[in-house]
Amino acid sequence: MIIKLSPQRRDDELKIGKRSDVLTINGERFDFRELPEGAVLPASAVDCNFVIGDITRKDGELILTLLLPCGPDATAAANFPADIVSPPDGNVSLPT
Question: Residue 40 in contact with residue 57, Cβ under 8 Å?
Fold first, then answer.
């Protein structure tokens, strides 16, 4: 899995949990296990304001882009985030 982050000045919170290709975003579960290789699922098909780009599967990896809320005191790591590549199952650490 590759999670791309797109920072935006906002005061809300983002919490992500991961188990296989199932993400829990702020308590809501999204199961992407059935997305086949080469498929593209438009962000508009996912009822989540934090999913802001199409979801794809390439070379077996699920790739998606999430909005990353950044407060006024966000670090450079949050304002210019690196992709999260192959995060382990559990809570996903996000830059703050």
Answer: no
pTM (predicted TM-score): 0.93
pLDDT band, residue 42 (cuts 50/70/90): very high
Domain boundaries defined on the chain: 2-88
CA-to-CA distance for 17 and 22, rounded, in angstroms? 8
How many whole angstroms separate alpha carbon 16 and alpha carbon 27? 8
Residues 5 and 68: beta-carbon distance below 8 Å? yes
